[in-house]
Amino acid sequence: MPEAAMRGGRLTRGVVRVGDTVRRPPSPFAASLLALLEQRGFTAAPRHLGHDDSGRDTLTYLPGWVPAKLRPWTDTQVAAAGALARALHDATRGSLLAGPHQVVCHHDLGPNNTVFQDDLPVAFIDFDLAAPGSPLEDVGYMAWLWCVSSKPEARSVQAQAAQVRVLADAYGLTPSERAVLVDAMLERQSRNVRFWAELPAGGIDTTAEQIADRIAWSRREHDHTTKHRADFAAALS
C-alpha cells in the first residue's frame, strides 16, 4: 500500500500512514508502554501491532484531527484532556515500566499530540518521550500548553488561571499537588528552554532560527507565569 507522510512529528522523522496503520522508527520503550496500556484497558492510545518488514513499529491509526497550532480551548476540552491524562497515568501505576516512580509520563501532552473527535480530546499519540516520572511533570506541562499563554491577544490571566483549576479538578490533583502545580509549570517551561538549547540544529526537521524562536517563546511563557504566579496559585487554592 502507498505510504503518506504524516504532518507534524518534529522530533521523529519518517512517520508515515499506510492504510489504517502508522509506521514509525522503532522505540522499544514506547512499544512496551503501548502494550501495557492495552493490557490494562486504556483505549485512548494507539495499539502496537508489531514491526513491519523494515523493522518499523506498526501502530493503529486513530481517526480524528490533531491541532497544528496552540490556541484557546474550552473548559470542556481541557477537562476531557485532564481526565484522559489521569486515566493514562493510572494505567501505568505499579507497573514494571514505572519502576520506583509513581507513573509513566508521556512528557509531551500538548494539544499537538492529542487526537480530537467531535471537537473533544479522545486519545494521545507520539509516546517517543515517555519515561517514568511524577504525574506533575505531565500535568504541569498540560497546564501551560492547554491553559496559559503570554500572547497579547490571549485571554485574561484570571480566565487562564480559572482554566488551570479546571484541569487540576478534572485530573483529580490532591491538595498537596495543587499547591506545587505552578512550580511544575515553571519547571516544564524551563525544561523546554534547556531541551531546545541543547538540541543541535539539523538533528531534527527544525532550523536554527526555529529553535531560537522556541527558546525565546518558552522564556516569555516562563516570565508570564512567574509574573502572575499569585493569580494561578489563588485559583488552585
How would you explain this protein's 3D organization?
The protein has 2 domains: 4-60; 75-236, Aminoglycoside phosphotransferase (APH), C-terminal lobe (Aminoglycoside 3'-phosphotransferase, Chain: A, domain 2), CATH 3.90.1200.10. The chain has helices at residues 28-39, 75-90, 135-147, 157-171, 175-179, 181-197, 208-227, 229-236; strands at residues 4-5, 16-18, 21-24, 48-51, 57-60, 103-105, 114-117, 120-124, 131-133. The radius of gyration is 18 Å and the shape is globular. The mean pLDDT is 94. The chain is 45% helix and 14% strand. The protein contains 8 helices and 9 strands. Strands 1-2-3-5-4 form a 5-stranded antiparallel β-sheet, covered by helices on one side. The protein is α+β, with helices and mostly antiparallel strands and 237 residues long. The longest helix has 20 residues, at 208-227.
Short description:
This protein is of the alpha+beta class.
The CATH homologous superfamily of the largest domain is named Aminoglycoside phosphotransferase (APH), C-terminal lobe
Helical region count?
Answer: 8
Binned, the helix content reads: 40-55%
What fold name stands as the CATH topology of the largest domain?
Aminoglycoside 3'-phosphotransferase, Chain: A, domain 2
User: Which range does the strand content fall in?
Assistant: 5-15%
Provide the domain count.
Answer: 2
Q: What's the SSE pattern?
A: EEEHEEHEEEEHHHHHH
Low-confidence stretches: none
- Give the neighbour order of strands across the main sheet: 1-2-3-5-4
**Average of per-residue pLDDT values:** 94
CATH C-level category of the largest domain:
Alpha Beta
**Sheet with the most strands, sense and barrel status:** 5 strands, antiparallel
